[in-house]
Every structure is written in structure tokens, then in C-alpha cells.
Fold these 4 entries.
Entry 1:
Amino acid sequence: MAEISLYNQRFKLKHGFCFLNESMKKAALFIFLFISLQTFSQTVSGYWYGTANVKSSSSTNNYLVELVIRQNKTQVQGLINYYFKRSFRSIKVNGNFDSRTRQLTLLNIPLTYHGSLEDMEVDCIMDFAATLRVAKAGSNLVGTFMGKPGYKYSCVDVNFNLKLDADISKEDSILRAIKLYKETYQVWKPNFEDTLVAVNIIPRKVENYVIDAEYKQRENILSKEILVDSDSLNVDFYDNGEVDGDSISIFYNDKLISFNRLLSTKAVHFRVGLDTTREINEISMFADNLGTIPPNTALMVVTDGKKRYEISMNSDLKQNATLRIRRKNH
């Protein structure tokens, strides 16, 4: 009996230990997978792309968004690119990421007001608030561009869902994109017709407080002075050379009439009536960025009846290129 009892104790001990080992293996595997998932989910570095939209009782407006960011501990920096109607914007961003709550916050992003007309664009200064969602199918940033207090009714929330492109979200690629400011390869691209169509501008004052302030801080450099016969002129801007992502804003007599216009082989066109109460009228080109090949260069074509003037305009982050226009005395 003593031998049987001892055998039973050894049997229980042996098989109990095996059972405990199996449980521990499962627990260890679960913990490993959980930690791996948590570790993977702690970073928001990468290329994110998708759409954003605002819905009202009368309309739905879509923004096409690309976010390129790099996380360093809790700090995040990068750039956000977006298309809205016929405008392209490229903006540097900074913020923070809370890995515990998976909340990403980027502050003070100028987002074109969803109700803006093409000839009267207005910015809403918004905060970007997103939650990181991680799944087998991929990672997403889901959240909202939120208007500042006091502007909630005019600058309504814009909801977005951005998907991570893991294949190209490499550290060196992200750093290069941030360094160049304007990314040369965009993950998401609209149709050709949407991005390179000719833009027709009606010259009237538009509001963009950020660009207005920066314009005043830069020096206006004279590119050329012309003498014209007509009271109104046709003006066209093209990218001068290789199309490299140059974006410009246009001032007429120090008043902003259009901003964030992407230069291409198709014209940014407008017709301007000269202010006859002034001896000199001026058109200035403000560089929103430097493209991938600095400085920001444009070919400006001015048509005065049958006369045609071609002016090379070069601007950077310190200087605006300016055309001076005088009207002949009749």
C-alpha cells in the first residue's frame, strides 16, 4: 500500500507539473503576443493617408490627406499634405503622442474652410486629434480636425480616417520627407485632372492671417518693371523648369488674392484690373515652400493686348519676387 501511495503521489506530481508547464507556456505565449502588439502599437511614425470630410445639412466636402510623421519618445514632428478642391497645402506639424491612451495630438493646423469659394479662401486654425487603432488588417489614425474655442460654429469638425502604408514607412524615407518639407513621392495621388488643371483666379482679397504675417516679414525684391497700355492685364504663372512641387501665394498691391497654388505646366491664371489711382501697381509672388529644387521659381507671363512679357520670378523664405507695373500716359 505504501508503494502504491508513493506511486500515486509521483504520478500526480509528474502530470501536474506537465499540466502546469503547458499552462505556463500558453500564458507566456499570450504575454509575449500582448507585449509584442503593445510594442508595435506604441509608434505612430510613418506615412498615413486617406480622406477627411465635413458633413452639414447642405453639403459634404472631402479633403485628401497625407500625413508623414516621426515619433521621438512622446514628441512628434513631420508634415501634413492635403488637397481641397483645386488647392494643395503642405504644412509642417508638431505635437505629442500618448502611448498609454494611443492619442495623437497636433496643434494649430491651417485647414481651408470647407465652405470657401475658389476665389475667396479662408483658413480655419484647427487641432488634429486622433486615436491609433492597430489590427491584423493594418493600422489607422481615426479622429477629427477640431476648431478652436470661439470658432466652433464657423470652423466645424472635420472627421478623418488615415491608413498606415507600412511598406514605405521607413525611417530614412520619413526623415528625408521632413527634411525636404515637400514630399516628392506622395502615397496617395488624385487623378491627373484634379491636380494639374488650370486655375482661374478672380483677383479679390482673401484671408489667410499666417501668410499675410509672413509676407510682411519678407523683403520685396524687384524682378522687373514693365510699361503697359491696357487698364487690365492677363497674368499666368507656370513652374519655370522641372515641376518640383513649388507652391505660391499671390499678392496684388500687398493684398493677398490667392494662396497655396501648386505650380505646374498648366497656368495659374487671373486677369487683373490696374488701380488707376496709383502710379505703380505691383504683383508679388510669395513662396509657400521651396519645392525639391530651391528656390521657388516661376515663369510669369503678362499679356497686355498684343504684347507679351515673360518674367522669371524667384522667391524663397526670406524674399518675395515682385513685378512693378506702370501704365503709359495717354
Note: The CA atoms of residues 95 and 106 lie 4 Å apart.
Entry 2:
Amino acid sequence: MKTSTPSGGSPRGGSLLAEEYGDCLKGRSQESAGEEKLALVGSLVLDRFLIERRIGSGGFGVVYEAWDGRLERPVAVKAIEQRGEAGKRVMREAQAAARLNHPGIVTLYEMGEEDGNALLVSELVEGDTLARLAAEDVLSDREIGDIGADLCEALDHAHSRGVIHRDIKPQNVQVVDGQPRAKLMDFGIALVADAAGLTQTGDVVGTLAYMSPEQAEGLEAGPEADVYSLALTLYECWSGENPHRRGNAVATVRSIGRRARPLRRLRPDLPRELAEEIDACLDPRPQHRPLLEELGGAIEDSLDELADHAMSTPRRVGLRLGVLGIAAAVGAILVLGHGLVLP
């Protein structure tokens, strides 16, 4: 693992999400102005956390590495300007995190407000995003399987506490440095049972290329939506191809409702039972998808059959080419609804 990733999901040197899509989605001038207001390096926030350096940014704020002077430990601080949807997203993330306590989920330590900014303080995890590691093609099939098993356990914990993530994707998974252990992060658009809703039927929220069909249609997303997005993430990691990503948003949405090519057509060397379970989880009909524990069981049962060394030849190049159509897709956002993040 080559870089360190904070709990806010931004690899040192800049967020992968921001690098690829931030300018397209927000515009350079708007993003730069917002980040100037969030320039906190060298300041003490919440009378406790010394901001040491910026480590990334995304559509909703800036992430810093900081030092907790009281407990003497490094932390990640996500600073978000409290305006419009961004302010609501902060509360949603805090509400979700308050219900969760699991080693496979990044821990939120504290939430506060200062100078008009919402501050989320969380654990600083040394490692890298799954998106970056998959793009570099450095993970073995066994390591991807281990990561998938971790994510199944983390999501099972979240679902048991009434939290639906709704934005599972490689960028929202951190892989701990030096070991194939994964942590799920960014519950900013999570659906929290019994909490005040920020979306209603007809709203489209999530990251387009990883959305379940029901999310793309603006329908209510339950645990089945997370199963779909997790299976799609693993499909992409094992094959190097996202089966729904297209050159523009409209074409991607049309593809979401169709069945993906069977995984074994791209990777015939993978265990048959595992590949078939992934395919079943990608059924466009949520009621026909396997349960999360069934997916986790299929992964666990196949671990010993998965190669534990990096592939000698690169996987398909879909992960590396996925951003080429982003600029063309921006114009279609209004058609698809609010809350949408392009792949």
C-alpha cells in the first residue's frame, strides 16, 4: 500500500474522487472559493484538534490530518460549509455513524461547529482506497475476497441498526495499510431508520455507475440496494470492468436496468459458485437478489480457491478508462435528479 488514507476517504496527495470528478461536478471557481473558506491548516478547532495539513477534498468539503491534543492521537477532520444540501448531509452522516460500532466501519469520534463550518472528527486510517488499489491492479483475487467478506460484515452491522449506506463504491472503501482489511466510510447519503428524511420517492441519490436499478428510478432503496452495489464493486475489482459505466449519464442509466454479463465470461478462472452469487446479486429485481449473508457466505466458502498473488497480466482496463465520459455526462445531471454523483 503506497499512500495513507484518512477516514474522510481522501488519499494523501488528494482525493481520488475529487481528482477525477470534482471539477466537472462543481466547477473550478466554485470549488476553489469554498476551499478558501475552509483553509484551516495551523488552526486549533473545537479547542482540541490542531489541523496539521490538508489531505484531500471532495464535493462536500475538505479533509485534514489533525492532532488530538487531549488524547494524543492523529485524527481526520472533515470540514464542510454548512449551506444547503451540504449541511443536511453532515447531520445525516453523524446520525448514521452514531448508530454504528464495527471494526469494518470508520469510527466517527466527534461532531462540532465552528465559524460556520461543520466538523466531523474521525479515525485516521493508514491505507488506500479500494478504487486506487484496483486501478493499480495490485490486489490478488484472494485479497479482493477478504475485502468483500469484511464489507459484508460491516454492512450487515449497519443494516441491523437500520442504516442503509446507498453509496457503496470503491472510492468509499478504505483498505488498511499492509493487510487486506477493509473499512467502509462516507455515510453522507445513508438512509437512517426513524431519522428525518432528506430525500423522497423520485429523488436520485448515489453514484451513478454503482447504483441499483431502484435507486436510478428514484424508488426507495433497502438493504437489497447495498447488496447490488457491493456485488457490482466486487465484480469490477475482479474483472477490471464496470458493466454499466458508459460514455455519458443517460447511456449509463439505460444500462443499469439490464443484466450484466456473467462474471465468468470475463474471469472463467474464478470459482463458479462465487461468480454465480455475484451475478445473482446483480439481478435488476431487488426481491430476487440473495441476502447479504448469502453473498458473504459464498465469498467465505471460495476464499481458499482464490489466487493469493497479484495477476501476472492486468485485468481488463475498464477501471482506468471509466472517467473519459464524465465531462459529457455532466449536462445530463438535471435530467436525472438531485443528489447524483457521477461514477
Note: The chain has 14 helices and 13 strands.
Entry 3:
Amino acid sequence: MSGILASMIDGLLVGAVYGLAAMGLSLIWGVMDVINLTHGSVIVLGMFGMYLLFAALAINAYVLLLPTMVAGLLLGIVVYWMAVHWVVGRSILMSLLSTFAVNMMVIGIGTAIWSTSPYNVNFSLPGITPKMAPFRGAYTFTGNHIAAAIAAVVIALALQWFLYHTRTGKAIRAVADNREAAELMGISTTAVLTIAFGIGIALATTSGALVSTMFPFTILSGSVYQLKSFVVTILAGLGKPFGALVAGVLLGLLEGVVTPFIAVSWIPLIEFGLFVIVLVAFPQGIFGKRATA
């Protein structure tokens, strides 16, 4: 029983990072109605960004989150103007094709540079070994998982504050609600969409940096986290970034519950099943607005 509880707690910690990753996807999807298929590849770029910065500077990995986030913001602005601006407001298929093309470019260039060999950030924090029942010193919760979860929650709270208490954040919400009305009120929707996309990519690269401190990774690792981000986004509902954090924690908890009983290879199947169930039972997501008659 204590082993299951330990797995659940670890799942909660990892789930917070899943939620942070999904926040970027949810923000972009909700604000500009663009399905960002570069999401997985920019998560991987965050992993390699952390790896390269840590190898060069050899300082506390969590201090390096800030430059990784700034780099992600700038990358997002570049990708927006290169591949997204021209398809905003057009068919969903156009945004899918455009972002998928960027995704394949990143994977191709990354494979040429780093191959598909596994990498890891050789950094660890002291873990916590509870002495009380039911653990009695039998399990250690790794410091990296704890620190990553705390960082994810802090960043999520900062984003929530930004969206609701700053002029730019309120402009992003206004554009998400009604782009035409926002333009009539004098809001530059082009600037707002650029910033929103940049923030979404920054959240993805930051989550990738956090993942790199917990697990080994390759240039192809992004597809796994992109799948989880889609599941979390559907769970939370479009345009619900903080809801995505909660849904990510729930997904991590689910993984923690089932991992002691089944092979890890079955987890994607369970996540897809959950994806379908939520689409049927809660089409607007758990935190989305319910349709009224």
C-alpha cells in the first residue's frame, strides 16, 4: 500500500510539469484557434537548451530556467511570424500543416546535430525520505521531482496573475473572447497574438527544461509530451491555462495509480482512452463553459 501511495505522490509531482507543458498549448489554441504541432519539438528544444546551458555554466539547473524561458519567448515570436501569422483565421488544416512543417524541420536539424542518442542533465537535489507511516524510510522522493513541481506551480500562478492583473494579459483574454470587438476597442490583435504565441512557446520550452532534470531524453522525446499535453488540454478545456495545470496533476495522479499494476507501455493507451471519454462526457473540458439551452 505504501508503494502505491509513493507512486501516486510522485505522479502528482510529475503531473505538475505535464500541466505546465499543456498550459502553452492551451493558451495558443484558446487565443488564436491554432493547433500547434510544433509543441513537442519546442519542448525538446527546452530540454537541449537546459542541457547545453548546464554543460557550459555548471550552476544550479533551476537558475537556468529564466534564460530558457526568455529564449523560448524569442523563438515563439520567430515561429509565429515565420509559420503562424499567415494562417491565423484560416482553415485549421492550414495551421496544422504549417506548424507540422516547422516541427519536422526542428526534428530533422536536431537529429543531424544530436542524433537520436539519449541525453541527461547531470544535476540532482537531495531527496526527501519520510520517516513516518506508511513510508517509514522505505521510499525517497527525489529532490528534482519536488523542485520541478514547485517551479511549475510558481510559473503557473505567475501566468494566472499576468493574464488577470496586467494590461497585456487582459488584452490577451479580450482577443481570445472576441477578436473583432478587441480590434474595435483599439487593441492591436497582431501584437497580442505574437505575444500570446511567444508565451505559449516559452511555457513549452520551460517545461522541457524541467523534464530534462527528471528524465533522460532524445530529440524524439517530444511526441510523448505532446500527446500528454493534448490530453491535458482536452481535460481542462481550451483557453484554460490554470485549469491545464490542475488537469496535468490529475493525469500524473492517474499514471501514479496505474503504474504499480501495469507495464509503462500501456499508459499511452489509457491516456487515449481517457481522451475519448472526456470528449464524449465533457466536450468543453472539465473546466470549460457548459452549453446552456
Note: The chain has eleven helices and no strands.
Entry 4:
Amino acid sequence: MQLSLLDIYNQMGNFAKGIVYVLAIMSIWTLSVAIKKWWDLRQAQGETRKFAPEFSQFLEEDNLGEAVTLADKYKKSHVARVLGGALTEIRPLIQDGSVTVGDINSAERAIEREMLMTITDLKRGLGVMATVGATAPFVGLLGTTMGIVNSFAAMAASGSGGLASISSGVSEALITTAFGLVVAIPAVWLFNYFQIKIDNLTAEMTYTSKEMIDYMIKNVTGTGEFGIALHPRVQHDGDSGQLTDLAVIPREGLSHVNVYW
């Protein structure tokens, strides 16, 4: 006699049905988080593709005001958030003609802070996928264990032996483990997929932030004004991470921010 999944479900006890309900909730939760995460990353990448060329053009024109406004416009772009934070930090100093090496270091720290917050936002929800992927098989196994215990208890109570007397109960028990694996496997796949995507976006932010700092270094003069570039002999001190040993050289033009995606 073959039993369908519906027949097995109807024969399940309350505990096994409770396990199925828990796994169903975990599956729905994972899928909802994955859909939202996919949409957010898609928007971030789409806005970055629009933001990058316009932002580079404004920098080439020394139009920092429009560059900051543009960064505020593309709020979902991870690159715009990072670069906009740096420009907001240093724009008043550039306009006042009082930019120093310390100010550039301050802008660099502002970029790092904004990157940290952006990466935290990008990773939000990954913990749900990781938790579901790691625990769903064990939740299913719990249902299986209790189902087998109930099968043997029923066999002892009836006084009959043999596989025929417990096969129905065992099949009922094993279905919860199978359901747990069905929930866990997609969760692990989705977690790994989004983790790789976020690693790529992090690389984009790191690359463009370094380009932004290079732009500031090359286009600030020894008196703190744009027009004569500071040429870094040694850009960063190995221990402190601060800019050191700068010499003034004529500027040959503005560099632009190349966005990697």
C-alpha cells in the first residue's frame, strides 16, 4: 500500500505537524528575505551604473556641489553613499581653501565609517538564511526522532512486532527530515549567492573610495587649495595609516573616479 504525502500528513501526530508548520514558516521567512535582498542589490547596482559616469564628470569639472547633490540623489547606490559621505566631509574645507593633509585623513576615515555602515546594511538578512540553512535539518530530525519513538511505543502497547506494524509511523517520522532538508538546501544556496554578491559590492566600494582619496591628494595644494597637486612620495604611514611626506608639484589635470562593477 502506497501512501501519498497528503495521506502521511493526515496520519501525523500533533507534534510532527507542529514541526512541519515550523519548517514552513522558516521557508517562507527565508524566501521573503531573499526576494527583498535580491531587489535591494539589484537597485544598488542599477543606480551605481547611472551614478558613476555622472559623478566622474562633475569631478572633472571641479563641480563638487553637484557631485554631492548627485550622491544624495542616488541613495540606494552603495558607491554613492560612500563617496557622498567623503565629499560632504571635505566640501566646506575645499570651498574655504583650507584643506590640509589632516582633512584628507579625516575624509578617509569618513569613507571607512560609511563603508562599515553600508556593508552592515547589505548583510542585513543573511543571518536568517544562515540560521535556517544550519538548523532546518535538525528541526526535521527532531520530528523524525519523536515519530520513531512514538512508533515503537505504539508497537509495544499493541504487543505486535515486525516492520509492518511500525512502517507507517516510520514513514511519517522520516518525512519531517526530508522536509527539513528541502528547507535548508535552498537557504544555504541563497546565503552563498548573496555573500558573493556583497563581497563584489564591497570590492567596488573599496576601489572607488581609494580613487576618491587619490583624487583629493592629487588636487590639493600645499596651501590647501585645489589647482596644484600634492604628489605623495609615501601615501600612508605603515603604522598609523596617515598620509606622510608630501611634495608640491604642478597639477596636470583632475583624475576621475573609475567605478568597478
Note: The chain has one domain: 5-250.
